[in-house]
Amino acid sequence: MQIQEYEERLRLAMLHSDVAELDALIDDDLLFVGPGGGMYTKADDLQLHRSGSQRMLQAIWHTVEVRSYGTTCITAVTAELSGTLMGAPFAGRFRYLRTWVQKEGIWRVVAGSVAAVSE
């Protein structure tokens, strides 16, 4: 499976708050920097989806750039997102930067960040 296919699985899991799929795609040691600069873990991310505190209404990947380094890949995804976070609506264009590592033949996200970007 190509890393772009893993990105698509992640997009769908985020859109549908599929906690089981997110759990499979995100490494237990995840380090993630949110748009406000806060640091988050896998447990934080899963809890947002499990509790309904984050709901995606739209998640469209416009571009996915990939850099491969053996068992490590870096992806830069430009996305159009909308939904709610802690009850507050959000919408806009965002850029994710993710580090994927292949362990035992399975790719998982070990690090990432997201930032709002202008059109």
Task: Please give a structural write-up.
The protein is of the alpha+beta class. It has helices at 3-15, 19-25, 42-51, and strands at 26-33, 39-40, 54-69, 72-85, 88-103, 106-116. The protein has one domain (3-116): Nuclear Transport Factor 2, Chain: A. It has a six-stranded mixed beta sheet. Helix 1 packs antiparallel against helix 2 (19-25).
What descriptors fit this protein?
single chain; 119 residues; Nuclear Transport Factor 2, Chain: A; 6 strands; 56% strand; globular
Outline:
The chain has about 120 residues and is α+β, with helices and mostly antiparallel strands. The chain has one domain (about 5-115): Nuclear Transport Factor 2, Chain: A (Roll). About 25% of the residues lie in helices and about 55% in strands.
**What structural class do the secondary elements suggest?**
alpha+beta
Instruction: Enter the CATH topology name.
Output: Nuclear Transport Factor 2, Chain: A
Number of strands: 6
CATH architect. name: Roll
List the helices and strands and how they pair.
Blueprint: H1 3-15, H2 19-25, E1 26-33, E2 39-40, H3 42-51, E3 54-69, E4 72-85, E5 88-103, E6 106-116
Parallel strand pairs: 1-6
Antiparallel strand pairs: 1-2, 3-4, 4-5, 5-6
